[in-house]
């Protein structure tokens, strides 16, 4: 009798045995999806092994209902990656395997290309004069792209635009089952219009020499040094071999300019994986990558698990960005798993950043990675002048001091653009009663609501709960409710008052929610002329603003004083990324940083010595205090609604560790309330484990997970393990 060992997408570290019926024995295999009875329902599982034996009595085993796939969904290399990841992050294998699949495959749909439809020009559309569409700018732009045989990003055009051209009989829908032309046959190396400097030449040559084996590269380049051009030319060498490339980016909506550069450079199929894709489109892309029809995949962290027929290179852009770390459920780090995938595939991986993470820099300093430096700005652009502005005693208007306002006027008078950075969205972070001091708080999180004036709402920035703004204080009845503090919305309003004739664009999570809105803002700014940009850290994420000559950092003091040992690293990265937006090409830039603490050593080290000196000093401090990357951590979270079982569970873990693992190298911190003690109605607790040896910490966690799943406290609370945490909870 054949027994299938099966995992299901459930939060249990458990493998289930099912009998394989005789009619399926010859076609069943590892990595296939199957339908099985589970409790009183039918579930989809994945076979992880086959055996002739079971530790359970055979008459108690259920039988597989049917097989969905006639072959495995996972290549041997992806299978190895996912099994390793499940073990390392101590997350159930079933959840990990299903996470790596498109949603439709998780639901049991067939892994086969469905007939899809694309838009193409009609005979009339090929010869139509687009000037006749001048009253519909979007229709005109779309037809221009199609006539020029340029790639069309569906995010740029609504369905109504396509329908309008269809009604005019200029375009039509045609059915295709998949991409019909092999891009390898048509691929031609593109002429390189860019004049490379010597450092770019060296970096490209170093990478290209390693195309046939695993090598990890750190490409460290100051903002504006031309890292993207290095990516493009390295990928061109990969494509010339008929191989595919994977480019991971922190957030897909924040990099439309980079994506367009890829699309303009290469005459090959490129797919951009993002959250706005339909489930059908995502499955189609997944299948076409597996067959080799797609040449380049650009996507966020989950794109790492895309199957390829012949992967030749992985690039992780902005490798330091915290978005690569999953913060819910399976808390994997896409950058770290990308390095493992490159090693398994025996291909090079390039980690790019102007401000590399200290873990990555440490690996480069220890020669685990090859360190490629781009210290010169492309086109010989000069680095910006940086100034610390002491605002003690100065009158501030929505956070702006008079010296900064004067600088804004000066740069605008020269027909340049200004960027103001404030990492706090909304109008005000507090709504308070002027008479009794009552503060509007979210009852689910015990944290103040943020006042959003444009939406006329109070919104909790922790759980997104909205509330209408009260007309009077619920405590004393006063109608004198005032917003305290300022955010990007208030800053935008004040700038419109100060500069009524200058366009002001706010770029933050609130203003870019609408599909395609960010791209529209960037296009408007890219037209040049006087303009003021206001935004949060979205502005730091790789955008090209050639006309920005002044960057003002409005408020940073909150980031300078934190109990989180990573806070200084994050601040340094954001500061260097934001300040790098000032002065590109032939324009000299200026950066002004407002602070109440101008003597702060971190600020002065960054300004006078740069990120590299800061990183080396910080690594030395972490080494002396045995903090990562010179030790290894795991953060155990627990939460419940009554604030009882979660702390009990973590205390039970501490007691168990003291009893069974009295290792002097194991350091415990907690149990303690989480950084945000309450969120969405749950009371949250945490326990930090730290050890000098990764293997020993892993062994402890493996034993611990088995114990936790047996304890009643775990069944009455939500718990999880975050290996290599980068944030508190």
Give a verbal description of the structure.
- The chain is α/β, with parallel strands linked by helices.
- The protein has 6 domains: 3-106, GIY-YIG endonuclease (3-Layer(aba) Sandwich), CATH 3.40.1440; 116-176; 189-285 and 294-379, P-loop containing nucleotide triphosphate hydrolases (Rossmann fold); 381-427 and 486-622, P-loop containing nucleotide triphosphate hydrolases (Rossmann fold, 3-Layer(aba) Sandwich), CATH 3.40.50; 431-484, no CATH class; 632-723, Alpha-Beta Plaits (2-Layer Sandwich), CATH 3.30.70.360.
- Helix content is 32%, strand content 24%.
- A 7-stranded parallel sheet has the order 11-12-10-13-14-9-15, sandwiched between helices.
- α5 crosses α6 and α8 (198-208) runs parallel beside α9 (227-240).
- The longest helix is centred in the last third of the chain and has 25 residues, at 601-625.
- The protein is globular, with a radius of gyration of 28 Å.
- The model has no long low-confidence stretch (mean pLDDT 89).
- Its EC number is 5.6.2.4.
- Pfam families: DEAD, Helicase_C, PriA_3primeBD, PriA_C, Zn_ribbon_PriA.
- Zn(2+) 1 binds at residues 433, 436, 473, 476.
- GO terms for molecular function: 3'-5' DNA helicase activity; ATP binding; ATP hydrolysis activity; DNA binding; zinc ion binding.
- It catalyses: ATP + H2O = ADP + phosphate + H(+); Couples ATP hydrolysis with the unwinding of duplex DNA by translocating in the 3'-5' direction.
């Amino acid at each position: 009798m054949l027994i299938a060992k099966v995992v299901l997408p459930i939060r249990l570290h458990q493998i289930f045995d099912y009998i394989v019926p005789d009619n399926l024995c010859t076609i069943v295999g590892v990595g296939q999806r199957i339908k099985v009875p589970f409790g009183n329902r039918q579930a989809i599982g994945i076979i992880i092994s086959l055996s002739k034996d079971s530790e359970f009595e055979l008459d108690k085993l259920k039988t597989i209902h049917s097989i969905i796939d006639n072959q495995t969904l996972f290549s041997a290399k992806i299978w190895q990656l996912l099994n390793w990841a499940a073990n390392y992050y101590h997350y159930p294998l079933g959840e990990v395997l299903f996470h790596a699949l498109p949603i439709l495959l998780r639901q049991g749909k067939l892994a086969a290309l469905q007939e899809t439809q694309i838009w193409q020009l009609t005979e009339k559309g090929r010869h139509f004069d687009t000037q006749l569409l001048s009253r519909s700018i979007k229709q005109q732009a779309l037809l221009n792209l199609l006539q020029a045989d340029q790639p069309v990003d569906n995010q740029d055009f609504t369905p109504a635009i396509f329908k309008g051209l269809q009604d005019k009989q200029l375009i039509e829908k045609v059915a295709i089952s998949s991409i019909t032309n092999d891009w390898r046959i048509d691929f031609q190396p593109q002429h390189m219009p860019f004049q490379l400097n010597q450092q770019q030449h060296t970096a490209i040559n170093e990478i290209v020499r390693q195309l046939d084996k695993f090598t990890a590269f750190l490409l460290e380049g100051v903002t504006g040094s031309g890292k993207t051009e290095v990516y493009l030319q390295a990928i061109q060498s990969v494509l010339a071999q008929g191989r595919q490339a994977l480019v991971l980016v922190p957030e897909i909506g924040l990099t439309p300019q980079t994506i367009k550069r890829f699309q303009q450079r290469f005459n090959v199929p490129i797919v951009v994986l993002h959250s706005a894709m339909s489930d059908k489109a995502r499955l189609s892309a997944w299948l076409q990558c597996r067959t080799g029809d797609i040449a380049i995949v650009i996507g966020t962290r989950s794109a790492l698990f895309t199957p390829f027929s012949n992967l030749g290179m992985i690039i992780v852009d902005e490798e330091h960005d915290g978005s690569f770390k999953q913060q819910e459920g399976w808390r994997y780090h896409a950058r770290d798993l990308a390095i493992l995938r490159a090693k398994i595939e025996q291909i090079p991986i390039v980690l790019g950043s102007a401000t590399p993470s200290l873990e990555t820099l440490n690996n480069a300093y220890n020669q685990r990675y090859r360190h490629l430096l781009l210290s010169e700005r492309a086109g010989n652009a000069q680095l910006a002048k940086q100034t610390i502005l002491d605002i003690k005693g100065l009158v501030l208007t929505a956070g702006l001091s008079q010296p900064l306002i004067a600088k804004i006027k000066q740069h605008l008078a020269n027909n340049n653009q200004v960027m103001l950075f404030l990492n706090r969205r909304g109008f005000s972070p507090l709504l308070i009663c002027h008479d009794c001091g009552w503060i509007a708080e979210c009852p689910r999180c015990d944290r103040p609501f943020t006042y959003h004036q444009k939406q006329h709402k109070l919104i909790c920035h922790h759980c997104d709960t909205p509330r209408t703004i009260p007309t009077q204080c619920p405590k004393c009845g006063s109608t004198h409710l005032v917003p305290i503090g300022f955010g990007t919305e208030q800053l935008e309003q004040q700038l419109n008052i100060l500069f009524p004739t200058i366009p002001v664009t706010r770029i933050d999570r609130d203003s870019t929610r609408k599909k395609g809105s960010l791209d529209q803002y960037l296009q408007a700014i890219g037209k040049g002329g006087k303009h003021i940009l206001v935004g949060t850290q979205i502005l730091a994420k790789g955008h090209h603003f050639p006309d920005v000559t002044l960057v003002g950092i409005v408020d940073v003091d909150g980031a300078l004083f934190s109990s989180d040992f990573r806070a200084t690293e994050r601040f340094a990265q954001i500061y260097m990324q934001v300040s790098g937006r000032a002065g590109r090409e032939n324009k000299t830039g200026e950066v002004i940083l407002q602070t109440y603490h101008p003597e702060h050593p971190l600020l002065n080290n960054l300004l006078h010595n740069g990120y590299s000196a800061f990183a080396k000093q910080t690594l030395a401090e972490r080494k002396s205090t045995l903090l990562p990357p010179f030790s290894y951590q795991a953060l155990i979270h627990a939460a419940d609604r009554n604030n009882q079982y979660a702390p009990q569970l973590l205390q039970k873990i501490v007691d168990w560790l003291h009893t069974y693992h009295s290792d002097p190298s194991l350091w415990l911190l907690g149990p303690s309330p989480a950084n945000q003690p309450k969120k969405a109605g749950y009371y949250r607790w945490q326990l930090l484990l730290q050890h000098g040896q990764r293997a020993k910490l892993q062994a402890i966690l493996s034993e611990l997970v088995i114990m936790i799943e047996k304890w009643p406290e775990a069944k009455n609370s939500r718990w999880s393990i975050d290996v290599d945490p980068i944030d508190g909870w």
